[in-house]
From TrEMBL:
Gene3D superfamilies per the UniProt record, alphabetical: 3.30.70.240, Elongation factor 4, C-terminal domain, Elongation Factor G (Translational Gtpase), domain 3, P-loop containing nucleotide triphosphate hydrolases, Translation factors
Subcellular location: Mitochondrion inner membrane
GO biological process: positive regulation of translation; translation
Keyword set includes Membrane: yes
Reaction equations catalysed: GTP + H2O = GDP + phosphate + H(+)
Record HAMAP family: LepA
Source lineage: Eukaryota, Fungi, Fungi incertae sedis, Chytridiomycota, Chytridiomycota incertae sedis
Membrane topology, from the record: Peripheral membrane protein
Organism listed in the record: Chytriomyces confervae
The protein's name: Tr-type G domain-containing protein
Stored InterPro entries: EF-4, EFG_III/V, EFG_V-like, EFTu-like_2, G_TR_CS, LepA_C_sf, LepA_CTD, LepA_IV
GO cellular component: mitochondrial inner membrane; mitochondrial matrix
Length: 618
């Protein structure tokens, strides 16, 4: 043992390999750098080059835990603290919290250090609204091997760490990007309005680097703005020193009007040698459900217009055009992706902007073809079977009775509905679909307890009470999804409601002839129940293509003008009665087109009596 030590002490010190020393030094430096990035990623934000970035979304059916999983991911990365009293942190809208659904896609950036490489990554998560996955229910299988499926419980957090590792390992970094040193170019993919800073823009940087104080130009408006603040959603707005190629973040540009921000716009550096090729933008969403929207008080129209402008700023799928109603005054014709979209938009108008709105009955987009096309303006190609057609999105655009002789045909949009329900409720669902002009396409027994039904249904038939009846007949145990499947010929008519012989345009609706008379009679009775008696007699009628099919009368209130008379000449009494009669006649001629009270109108559209009030004698 001693000899060995002596021998070792006598030996010459071995010469060290400089390459080995450099490798060890580099490894130590790299480890120190990674530790510094992990400790303060915001300060080292420029280090997150595209190879350190992963962009991903959570896509699943409605109410399947997407936002809950997003909460677990944010907690594991330290982006938020675990707070059971504040679930679904990315669901920021009041309507989202009330309904328990995600209405608007939200972006959140998080920093994640991979346990094996100790390398920190920037993960950009998009929590999307619920998606309708029709084909999964139909095929009962996914095109993947079982060993690639991660077993995760978003509620308990079981298996969630494996999701983060898989995101880094399986999802490629952003590609087809420009250099961080080249001219700045970015895509505007989301906006919203903030009462303090104006329009907030969410961008994806394609090339170059952007810092606070720099100026950028909008390709769409050609306006140039100074960047007053920038950063990432973490999950709230968190300032960063810069945004560079591959990164996603927010901008404050001092935009004061919503018209300056267009989703899909291209931002670029005004000092560039030439304007860049713009991004193709986003394909406009096709509206399938239309409804009129009017302020409860006509004086509130400017406020409502401003509220709609701000909401459509981050919901470009809503189509907006102005229209005027004889009964309700100035308003808007709004196009939506569906009835839920329409209901949520109305709720956001009321809750976020304190704008009380009257919605007319929803309708779909119909097509009309004509025998002599030369007599009709506004025809468009690409209709049913390639014909030239006129699009009817409003009952006011429906052909008048005098023009029906030139109509070749009407066409309505159809959907294929997929229903899954317990076996004991099949009969009720089949009856429901049949009563709504449905045509059965498929009947599949999924297992011992569940059945899948497929029906071809007119889209107009599922707009109003279909969902309510579906829940009622199945005690809430059925699911219903649908997808569009083109147009088909239909025998359509227009139902008008008249007050004292004058049509109320806002109450007109388009229905199938087979259901027109029952609907007309029901609406007349409903309208009678919600209207109060007035000093003149009110005649409520429903007409189909100009022919009256139903009538109800609200008798006039009678004021006893002779109450102050105590006997005397009968001619005095008759004079007072004749004067009252003449006054009512003048009132009736002036108010021949009685305007329906807005509260009663709202109650009629909602299918019930305002506040449970029933018409009574007064």
């Amino acid at each position: 043992m001693r000899i060995s030590l002596t021998a070792l002490s006598c030996c010459k010190t071995p010469r060290r390999n400089p390459r080995l020393l450099f490798a060890r030094h580099s490894s130590s430096t790299s480890a120190d750098t990674e530790a510094a990035i992990a400790a303060d990623p915001i300060a080292h934000f420029a280090s997150f080059t595209p190879d350190r970035i992963r962009n991903f979304s959570i896509i699943a059916h409605i109410d399947h835990g997407k936002s809950t999983l997003a909460d677990r991911l944010l907690e594991l990365t330290g982006t938020i603290t675990s707070d059971k009293d504040k679930p679904r942190i990315l669901d920021k809208l009041k309507v989202e919290k009330e309904r328990g659904i995600t209405v608007k896609a939200q972006t959140a950036s998080m920093f994640y250090t991979h346990p094996q490489t100790n390398k920190t990554y920037l993960l950009n998560l998009i929590d999307t609204p619920g998606h309708v996955l029709n084909q999964i229910a139909a095929t009962f299988e996914l095109d993947t091997s079982p060993e690639n499926v991660l077993h995760v419980s978003a509620k308990t957090g079981l298996g969630v760490p494996a999701v983060l590792s898989k995101v880094v390992e399986a999802i490629p970094p952003p590609s087809n990007l420009g250099s961080a040193n080249s001219d700045f170019k970015a895509l505007l993919f989301d906006t919203w309005y903030d009462s303090y800073v104006g329009v907030v823009c969410l961008i994806a940087v394609h090339s170059g680097t952007l810092k606070k104080g720099q100026r950028i130009t909008s390709y769409h408006t050609k306006n140039t703005y100074e960047v007053t603040q920038l950063g990432i959603m973490h999950p709230e707005q968190t300032p960063t020193p810069s945004l560079t190629a591959g990164q996603v973040g927010f901008l404050h540009l001092g935009m004061k009007t919503t018209r300056d921000a267009q989703i899909g716009d291209t931002f670029y550096s005004p000092t560039a040698a030439e304007a860049p090729t713009p991004f193709p933008g986003f394909k406009p969403a096709k509206s399938v459900v239309f409804a009129g929207a009017y302020p409860m008080d006509a004086s509130e129209f400017p406020k409502m217009q401003d509220a709609i402008d701000r909401l459509t700023l981050n919901d470009a799928s809503v189509a907006v055009s102005r229209e005027t109603s004889n009964a309700l005054g100035q308003g808007f014709r709004l196009g939506f992706l569906g009835t839920l979209h329409m209901d949520v938009f109305r709720q956001r108008l009321e809750e976020e902007h304190d704008s009380t709105v009257i919605n007319t009955a929803p309708t779909v987009s119909y097509q009309v073809s004509y025998v002599d096309e030369r007599k009709v303006v506004g025809l468009e190609a690409g209709g049913f079977e390639g014909r030239k057609v006129k699009w009817v999105r409003n009952p006011a655009e429906f052909p008048e009775p005098d023009d029906l002789s030139n109509v070749q045909g009407f066409y309505e949009p159809m959907v294929i509905g997929t229903l899954i329900c317990p076996l004991e409720y099949v009969g009720g669902l089949m009856e429901l679909c049949g009563s709504h002009r449905g045509e059965q396409m498929e009947y599949t027994v999924m297992d011992e307890t569940r059945v899948l039904l497929k029906y071809k249904l007119p889209m107009a038939e599922i707009l109003t009470d279909f969902y309510d009846q579906l829940k009622s007949r199945t005690q809430g145990y059925a699911t219903f999804d649908y997808e569009e499947c083109g147009y088909t010929p239909a025998d359509l008519v227009k139902v008008n409601l008249l007050l004292n012989g004058k049509p109320v345009d806002a109450l007109a609706t388009i229905v199938h002839r087979s259901r027109s008379t029952p609907i007309a009679k029901e609406w007349v009775k409903r309208l009678k129940n919600v209207m109060d008696r007035q000093l003149i007699e009110i005649v409520i009628q429903a007409s189909i293509n100009g022919k009256v099919v139903s009538r109800e009368t609200i008798s006039a209130l009678r004021k006893d003008v002779t109450a102050k008379l105590y006997g005397g000449d009968i001619t005095r009494k008759m004079k007072l009665l004749e004067k009252q009669k003449a006054g009512k006649k003048r009132m009736k001629s002036v108010a021949g087109g009685i305007q329906l009270p807005q509260e009663a109108f709202l109650s009629l559209i909602n299918g019930g009596d305002e506040g449970g009030k029933q018409k009574g004698k007064k």
